[in-house]
Amino acid sequence: MKTLLIVAVLILILWNLGAGLYYMLIDKGEGKRTVNALTRRIALSIALIIGVVIAAKMGWIEFHGVGRSP
User: Which of 41, 61, 66, 69 could form a disulfide with 16 if both were Cys (CB 3.0 to 4.6 A apart)?
Assistant: First the structure.
């Protein structure tokens, strides 16, 4: 469940990044849709990082990887 939530947020981040690119090409500087899409992407990224840190501190997830001894 945790993995699915993280993957879903990453997909939303990529969606907003693509939307920002699309609006940048279509609007040609006329509207604020590009700025709004990229602002949402940044907000989602920050929320994801904070959520992962909080989940690690609460013990809901456990980090593993390079440099950790078993």
Answer: 41
The sign one gets for the Cα dihedral 19, 24, 27, 33 is: positive
**For residue 37, what is the DSSP state?**
H
By three-state DSSP, how is residue 62 classified?
A: coil
What is the model's pTM?
Answer: 0.77
Is 65 strand, coil or helix? coil
pLDDT in tens, 3-33: 899 999 999 999 999 999 999 889 877 788 8
Identify whether the C-beta of residue 20 lies closer than 8 Å to the C-beta of residue 40: no
